[in-house]
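Practice problem: predict the structure.
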Amino acid sequence: MSDRPTFDLQVNPTDTCPVFKLQGRLMDQQQADRLLSSLEEGLAGGQHNVVLDMSDLQYMNSTGLNILINVLTRTRNAGGDAIISGLSPSVRQLFVVTKLDSVFTITGGVDEALAKLKA
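Answer:
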């Protein structure tokens, strides 16, 4: 067992857009490389929307926020959007304190986020 914080990403394709399920602790740029490369593949393939399912993300620091802003910028520049779903109370607090809750669309769950993108 290492002391290094663990982060995992699962990409689940849906009819609407890919759902990126973030798990564990998002704290450094290397952890996000897979997330950003998956995002780039989707954008290149014409998928301009993404849902970030953060229901299993326990912790995120300022680097993690920076990564999410990067995702949002890339999707919006491509004419799409990145919607966040299922924030834990501690991660939600980070969005409130940084006022990023007014920048991102945040939903209670993945189904709600997908419905927003279909609307």
